[in-house]
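B., you asked whether I could sanity-check this one before it goes into the benchmark set. Here's the sequence:
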Amino acid sequence: MIQLGSFDADVPEAACKAYEKQVFEITRVPVAEILEGSDKLRFKPCVPDAAQSMTVADVQQGLKSSGFFPGGKVDGICGYRTLSAMRLFQEYVRSYEKLSCLPDGRFGPASQRHLKRWMDNRTTTEWAPTIARWQAGALGQAEYTDWLSLLEKVKGKYTADPNRMLQLAGAFGGATDTRSVARWDFTPGGNIHLVGIRRNEMSGKFDDVFVLLIKGLVFKFQGSTEPGASGNASGVPFLVQGQHDYHFGWHKKEYLALRPQHLDKGVLVVRSKGDMRLDDADLNNGLEANASINIHWGGKGMKFDVKTWSEGCQVVNGTLYLNEKNELIDCSAFAAANNAEVAGNPSKTRGAYNVLLDLVTALSSDLPSNSVKYTLLTEEDLDLGPALRQGLADARAKVRQLLS
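And here's what the prediction gave me:
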């Protein structure tokens, strides 16, 4: 079984130590400090046998040639990027080929047979041509370019007429990972963009939308951009509207998530007391930089309150997502409700959240940066892109139908 921490027999111990150092340099948390659970890295030699004949390097090479691990290093060590590429491949086999395959990152005989089939047939992903066009300078899917166009229009709108929140963010005097409107950057290039759409009706539920723009492709996820509860006497923290710099990291040292780019800066929040609504009185108290506002997993979501999950973090649930063809993909059969379920039941995963994380982690392996530009919009901003607004409304209708 090839899984996180597996390494080939010819890999020296020094290479494993070097990989641990690399993880620390990217995530800024020593591997030894990661809490027990499915994302805890434990090195274990991989010895192929008759049932599982592939080495780790074989799997890495197969994932590269199939389009799941572009630029990935074939080093014989199953690290976090390799884990993401394996899960992404398993999810593709499950959701596109409609074959039995649990996207758990445990690459046993069945998954290896699927990958060998792909290698023998020289199969690549359906999205490979779009990524190739994106790499050649074209912008990929029409919807991808539509989103970039919308984001530029939103920037133009707030450059000309910034609202009070954006004025405060632009005038903030301290160090922060939140960008002023003038510095919002929507160039595709080597950038990965994640867009959060905060609904007007702040419900405390998982009913907001996240749109991932990566290499010319568009994927959509469900979750919440709202805080749920806080013990802070100043009130609950709302992430401010606008663009923020994020990077690979950990959520509470439990599992991989996206964190503000700098530990000594953080993103800007405004606190609200009592009514869980943002108003002028809240803005009058000013903004603060907060380095703990992560983008992380929220269990199954949908039917759960945000208050049990988020103190201002942006939270993605695991129940479902829409792929780049706008097909609704149901992950409810194996989506776990909490970390204990992930750790205690091999048939449970973080579902759709893993898909978002794996797309960012595996498909960015040939990009120059590990950063993600996260832009938080409001529903009114979608007025500048009516077709996109209607598309999100259609997506919500699909979700309601699935859950009814």
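One thing to flag: The chain has a mean pLDDT of 92. Otherwise nothing jumped out at me.
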